[in-house]
């Protein structure tokens, strides 16, 4: 097999946050596959074929990428943020598990700046102590699992980064998550709602969880719920390194 498969993260939005390693892989690519808005970020050039697809076609996309690489292509599968964080790296390896004939393909995973880290940097240091990340989408797991993880994360006093809080097809999820955390006694915790981080319409809002409403988030929003000791210093929010 002469082809290669690279799974790359495009960062949160700004081209300045794409790593040089990812830029080099894209410059050498013959084929780029990904969710349509992410592929739209890749300039078309001679020798490059773009393969945009729907956001619910991850396994089909991964299988196609493996096939193109097996046929000799220099293939790049793109995700926003980091490809290993709720993104395409897992889908590619899931497809690979079902296709042993391609398991000797040269495969690389190139990290990117995920929305959680970009949002935290804009706000200050809300992930300065122990934290976790929870995807609020129930497309691939039942809501009962999400609720259990939220309750346990609150009990353990983690800062919580919440991905995919609210969409047109799932308008109730973020409200349910807020209710779970309020019931767990997190009402006074600080909540950072970071929308379109590094983009031209970036917006960062910090409120207490008691004051957060479902309408404050959409699919372009990354939400960070601070731990019990997270606090403000001027306009910044940070989690102290020392637990008392």
Explain this structure to me?
With 244 residues, the protein is an alpha/beta fold. It folds into two domains: 4-113, Tetrapyrrole methylase, N-terminal domain (Cobalt-precorrin-4 Transmethylase, domain 1, 3-Layer(aba) Sandwich), CATH 3.40.1010; 116-238, Methyltransferase, Cobalt-precorrin-4 Transmethylase, Domain 2 (2-Layer Sandwich). The chain has seven helices and 13 strands. The strands form three sheets. The chain has a five-stranded parallel sheet, sandwiched between helices. The chain has a five-stranded mixed sheet with strand order 7-8-11-9-10, with helices on both faces. A three-stranded mixed sheet has the order 6-13-12. Strand 7, helix 6 (143-155) and strand 8 (159-163) form a beta-alpha-beta unit. Helix 3 (58-70) crosses helix 4 (88-97) and helix 6 (143-155) runs parallel beside helix 7. It is elongated, with a radius of gyration of 19 Å.
